[in-house]
Amino acid sequence: MNYVDGFVIAVPTANRDAYLKHAEWAAIIFKEHGALNVVECWGDDVPEGKLTSFSMAVKREPTEAVVFSWVTWPTKEARDEGWKAVMADSRTQADNNPMPFDGKRMIYGGFQMIVQA
């Protein structure tokens, strides 16, 4: 079964167009290095929680939106090799494609798919 990298970030709403450009560009690079697909979702109905929430997890400010994203890979091995290639790709260096968000507040992880319906 496939392997997924998931991400949750806070992006300034003023940077939405810059983020879209950044994400579209990054998706091309991920796919060149083996990703099956890249999905980016701009939050428009993300409730605040009392104990936990997406907003709390990324310390979202009032002028930011939550973005939920994932990259699907054929296998964990393909993901591991793909990430090495993505990180080594000169196009992904901050000077070439600066992140329009605070990367320190990004939450991410790799997940084994166990159900796909």
What does it look like?
The protein has a single domain (3-67, 74-112), classed as Alpha-Beta Plaits, CATH 3.30.70.100. 29% of the residues lie in helices and 27% in strands. The protein has three helices and four strands. The chain has helices at 16-32, 54-57, 76-88, and strands at residues 3-12, 37-42, 64-73, 107-112. The model has no long low-confidence stretch (mean pLDDT 94).
Which key phrases capture this entry?
alpha+beta, Alpha-Beta Plaits, four-stranded antiparallel β-sheet, 29% helix, globular
| CATH C-level category | Alpha Beta
Radius of gyration: 15 Å
Strand composition percent = 25-35%
| Domain module tally | 1
- Level-2 CATH architecture: 2-Layer Sandwich
| Uncertain stretches | none
What's the pLDDT, averaged over the residues? 94
Protein structure class = alpha+beta
Topology order in helix (H) and strand (E) letters: EHEHEHE
Number of strands: 4
CA(first)-CA(last) distance = 12 Å
What is the overall number of helices?
3
Largest sheet: 4 strands, antiparallel
Name the overall outline: globular
In terms of quaternary structure, what is this?
single chain
The spatial strand order of the largest sheet comes to 2-3-1-4
What does this entry show, briefly?
By secondary structure, this protein is α+β, with helices and mostly antiparallel strands.
Question: What's the structural blueprint in terms of helices and strands?
Answer:
Blueprint: E1 3-12, H1 16-32, E2 37-42, H2 54-57, E3 64-73, H3 76-88, E4 107-112
Antiparallel strand pairs: 1-3, 1-4, 2-3
